[in-house]
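Preliminary data (for renewal application), adenosine-5'-diphosphate complex.
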Amino acid sequence: MKKTRPMIASERNYVIEKEKFVPVSEYYGEDTFSNRVMKEKLPKDTYKKIMDAVNEDKNLDERTADIVAQAMKEWALEKGATHFAHWFQPMTGTTAEKHDAFADPAGPCEVLERFSGKQLVQGEPDASSFPSGGVRATFEARGYTAWDMSSPAFIRRNGISTTLCIPTAFISFTGVALDKKTPLLRSNKAISKSAVNMLRLLGNKNVKKVYSNLGPEQEYFLIDMDYFYKRQDLVLGGRAVVGAPPAKGQELEDQYFGSIKERVSSYMHDVEEELFKLGVPAKTRHNEVAPSQFEIAPVYEEANLAADHNQIIMDTLKSVAKKHNLACLLHEKPFAGINGSGKHVNWSLSDDKGNNLLNPGKTPHDNVSFLVFLIATVRAVYKHADILRASVATYANDHRLGANEAPPAIISVFLGKQLTGILDNIEKGTIAKATNAEIIDLDISSLPIVSKDNTDRNRTSPFAFTGNKFEFRAVGSSQSINGPALALNTIVAESLDYLAEKIRARGGNINQAVFEVLRKEIGEIKAVLFNGDNYSREWEIEAGKRGLPNNKTAPVALKGLVTDKALALFEKYEVLSNVELRSRYLIHLERYINDLEIEAKCLNNICVSQIIPAAVTYQQRLASAINETKEALGGAVVLPAEKEMLKNISDLINKIYATNKEIMAKIEAADAVDDEQKKAEMLCAKVKTKMNELREYVDELEVLVDEEIWPVPKFWEMLFIS
Ligand code: ADP
Ligand code: MG
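Predicted structure:
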């Protein structure tokens, strides 16, 4: 490939227009129709009605909706918006929006800007082209979007177009959820109800609502846009299907938390500016482990808002990259042989007074409550590890999980030494109640300090307690976090109810009842606790002995969504009906099949139309060189080096050609299978393995062929941004 050195930032023609420095506090949230704006623009009673609707899940009457719509329209027009859009999250995993102009004919050659309460509250996008897993038969293509009042409307600017985006849920005519937001909202309700009940049982009568909070740490890669567009695998599937790792990868460990290059930090600055305008609390940024890998983490927020904001973050990372002539890769494993990208999802529960229920308290009572919520979560993971695993099962994430940089497919819980010790003692009966004296004796009161200590950390665990929250680390970087979050909320709600029932059944002194129940429970669930190295082979063996599920591939893992246990659970908590859950399972399977086939076809195209022609050119050059040298020096000359090179190259061409053909035949065979589950498993077992084999041949060839004629950008070129 003909090299052109990527330009450094100062050579580029993008102009940094900042005339003067404006503190973030002056523009933070300016592009959102926030509570502050509503308070300012709405009549007092309207504002109160909308707050009540959000906080107490009440409906909004038509008249109020009209007033809000009017204010929202005026605000949006001031911001330059010409259109409004119901912004929703279909099962594709990304977001969708249908734009409508505010301008409405009001007579010949006349328009008025109009926006009614009805248009704000409900939309009717044509839903027929979104995945529905068979829920929505083609004759009933209508889908409805419904305004989600708990997430603020915002302004999106794209080039010179400006749109008011209204976060919405997306449902079918019959009320079936067609999106990722609806079940998350339902799971928020479920966990709140169960947690409030538990708190009441433990003597806390004041709490009305409990929130689940999410703090997703988003990893991503950046490469020069010029390289990106030269690779159809990156453009179409987000992952380099061929490419040998560079001579220098991440072994020097000089990238992690290293100083950020100018071009990248300018990019990060622009990303954050956009996010701040949208009220997304982007907090930390740093280099990640792999070259050209980075992370952005916002401050945690209530789950629904955090999930919307994560979608906005992913969109913003991509759109701002273009302005810097960069491509942002959110794929879980864009470059084989180099660390992949995850999205650690930090999860906790807090009450309506802002108390974190997973924060070990200072009083005996707080500690009892903490232990109950902690153990309920551990129990949930133990009972439903398969559901959590299914919630992160995608084709892309399979490349990363278990690849010695990310947790394995075995879902276990890390609690750290001290907490594990406390649980042991509760189980043994040496801690049987939570009096002040014993708490001090047993050091429980120092929990917050000790367990938050960074030395007691385990980076290899898929589900780790980190002081006052759990960190679910198996989530993939490109995934919507709604699925994992709603799974967590639902399984923990169930565990809280289960424990509450046991505690109630014991009766008598509440603290004593709690400890007796926990004692028995710990014994049953402790197999899921593991503080060691989750990447090791020994753990895989040990986990097998403990009977923990180890669903290594997505097709197998996805079955966890449609077990009787899962169907009953999600239905009981009114998060997903059986129809909805089954349709989701099917959508995920179909997505797996599509993702895999797209990659396989890309690989085929790259091999046949780029790699083989380049190799043949070089082969021909070598052959003529041999013949011409012989001619020049006389027939007796041997030329062993050239001959060996020629032989190796033609062998590899043959292997690549043959393996490619085999892959295409196997895909055809799989496509003939009707059952989606079987088809996905077949592709996984037969095609994926062959694709890996083919890749090895291509990567071997890459280092043999003249660099000048290699047809796709190499890893070393792409991964070291200047
Ligand atoms: P780490 O050491 O894992 O990077 P941080 O303290 O930096 O941990 O937090 C990482 C993420 O966890 C951030 O998004 C942060 O806002 C979030 N987080 C912190 N506390 C909570 C909490 N109580 N609930 C949910 N997320 C939280
Ligand atoms: Mg973290």
